[in-house]
């Protein structure tokens, strides 16, 4: 590979809670892609996800521990660890060439690192709308308690 074609994006390491599933990834658009969704499944799951192209995610360990959940149209493929139950990543219905990766699985990251995260409207999914529009349903905001930092 020549220097001009090398990918300069950082490689992140990620894992489920118990460590059975380990994977590496490169973010498609850095942390700017962080978002939540308000569909019935994502509301209950509660994860902040970042965007990764399919070819930029590699399962390093535990492929056999990954379980799959699909619902409604069956287009989105939600992967989670069958041992600890943690959602790791999912292939998106809106963009099947992308994964949404659980930020909490990425080493050194937390969903609380984001002061504000847009919430995608999964109730009125862009693929179900005649105009294909994808306006945000809202924003999730986090403000740390300054008093808690001093404990």
From TrEMBL:
One of its GO terms (molecular function) is carbon-sulfur lyase activity. InterPro entries: CENP-V-like, CENP-V/GFA, Mss4-like_sf. Keywords: Metal-binding, Plasmid, Zinc. Residues 12-128 form the CENP-V/GFA domain. Belongs to the Gfa family. This is GFA family protein. It comes from Comamonas antarctica.
């Amino acid at each position: 590979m020549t220097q001009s074609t090398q990918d300069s994006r950082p490689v992140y390491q990620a894992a489920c809670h118990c460590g059975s599933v380990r994977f590496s990834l490169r973010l498609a658009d850095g942390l700017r892609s962080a978002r939540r969704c308000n569909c019935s499944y994502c509301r209950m799951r509660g994860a902040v996800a970042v965007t990764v192209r399919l070819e930029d995610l590699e399962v390093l360990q535990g492929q056999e521990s990954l379980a799959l959940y699909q619902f409604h149209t069956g287009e989105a493929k939600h992967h989670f660890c069958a041992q600890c139950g943690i959602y790791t990543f999912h292939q998106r219905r809106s963009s099947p060439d992308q994964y949404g990766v659980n930020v909490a699985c990425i080493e050194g990251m937390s969903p609380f690192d984001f002061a504000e995260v847009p919430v995608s409207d999964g109730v009125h999914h862009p693929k179900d709308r005649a105009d294909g529009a994808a306006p945000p349903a809202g924003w999730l905001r986090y403000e740390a308690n300054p008093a808690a930092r001093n404990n």
